[in-house]
Amino acid sequence: MTTSNHCPLIHNPGNGGRGDQLLLTSPHQPPPRLRGTRIPARLVAAEIDPWWPRKPTASPTPPPPPCPRRRLRTPPPKNAAAVDGIAVGGPAVRAAQLPHLPRHLGRPRVAHHRRALHGDAGERRVRGLGGPRVRALLRVAHGRRRHMDADCLVEIFRRLPLDDVAAAAPLVCRSWRAAARDASLWRALDLRGGGGAAARFMPWSPLAAAFAARYGVRRFTFAGYLRLCVARAAGRAAELALPPLLGAPDLDLVSLRCTELRRVALPALSAADDARLPGLVARWRRLEHLELEHRPASFPATAARVGAGCPGFSSLKMAGAIRDVDAAAMAASLPRLKRLCLDGCYLPRHELLAVIHGCLELESLSAKHCVGFDEGDEEVAREAAMIGRLEVGGSRLVDKFDQRDVDGLDDDTSSYVDVM
Hints:
Layout: H1 41-48, H2 81-88, H3 91-97, H4 110-126, H5 132-143, H6 150-157, H7 162-167, H8 174-180, E1 188-190, H9 197-200, H10 206-215, H11 222-233, E2 239-241, H12 248-257, E3 263-266, H13 271-281, E4 289-292, H14 299-309, E5 315-318, H15 324-333, E6 339-341, H16 349-358, E7 364-366, H17 378-383, E8 389-391
Parallel strand pairs: 1-2, 2-3, 3-4, 4-5, 5-6, 6-7, 7-8
Helix pairs in contact: 2-3, 4-5, 6-8, 11-12, 12-13, 13-14, 14-15, 15-16
């Protein structure tokens, strides 16, 4: 069979084996789709071409994992299990885990809960500071720390002991840390600590335990604590009281870094430090009050340097045995002395009269419980009549004691003089 050139012959094998079937088609029309063949053009193209547009599937793609949150510095409280989930979940998780919040507040932010956790920790740190009134002020200051002036916070810290300002207050929050560094809080450095001054800076003391627990200080020493106080004072320290067992480097540090001192209290010094005392005192040009726990051997030279280099010096407190050279040094080098305290000293009557005659500007003289003159001495009372305040109660010519306390001494020993 022949056909026209315009009518192509197409073989169709799907006619049930009944022979070839002629399909006449037009050259301007596409050939018809054969029976039994299905060509899903879109699906095949999507499988072949990865850039072929696809319809969105029913299951959405999983969200990316959340970014790890910064670890909190303060451990969460016991009932803060939901807060841990907030720190690692998304907005939906956070909203689902906090059903107790009012709806008008919207979705909570993690920063609010972090501040709440830090606030609880700061409240726990406030509990151990100062007395009841000071703790009440500190609670108010901690609750209003965002709206309180720094000067008000510094005034509250001024009522705290120096150890609390150094060890506990800086760890509550940033504003407290900045206020604790104020140099005005470190102008009065009383490091004696009452009767247990030496035990205050021992490795087993509460202050050492506080620095070890809060700052990780393994070996707590007085020298390190003194350097901290001097650094915080920034050269503006006006009062300084040092404990016993003082080292030579500590004295050098104080004399070089604390040149604005007005009141100084020194313990009993070693022989080497005693010899260097006149040079150390000469650096304190604004010195007004000097307290010596024990009369140094170099007191005449020290009094001469103080009288020449400290024009505002007006107060002296000293204990020990007052020699004739010491009384002469006070009369010659410190004529502008206004307040003098010699309680508990060995002070003979002749030396006391020399001091009264040399220091004509004395306004207050205290010589209580001294040995060397009697409290009812008429000449002493007459010569000290121009002094506004004179206290000599408890003083006696000799210090008598019970003979039974001196077994083994000579029989003619009936009295003694306690020379400190």
